[in-house]
Amino acid sequence: MSDPYVPRGLRSEVSRLARGCCEYCLSQVDFSPAPFSVDHVVSVSNGGATELSNLALACEGCNGHKAAKTAAFDPVTGRRVPLFHPRQQHWADHFAWSDDDTMVIGLTAVGRATVEALRLNRPHLQHLRAALREAGFHPPPSRQEPTP
Fold this sequence. Notes:
- The chain is α+β, with helices and mostly antiparallel strands.
- 30% of the residues lie in helices and 14% in strands.
- A hairpin with a 6-residue loop joins strand 5 (95-97) and strand 6.
- The mean pLDDT is 93.
């Protein structure tokens, strides 16, 4: 969930680390009609700090679905697991693209729970991904490392 005040310098650093993408669904800022926000991975209401290690760039959809959640149920095992943390985990360790690059596939319990909780495969995102792929703009460049 985003906090109304994150210092401008910190916002800029989060945006730089995100490389123009939502750090959950990898939607690209350049192709989004809605503004992105700086999300507290662990919300302030849950004790999260306003510091780089706890902030991520999030599209409106992911930020809204995540809200203050830090955990969700893995649809395969039924266990409650932590949601993906962009500053501590590698996106590619937990997610992959479907063969047609329109859907995010959860590879791990964390990935599957995050896909479901944040609804990373919202229908309009699938349509946008297909159009961007056709135009050569999707998927975005790979993220191999967490960005602290």
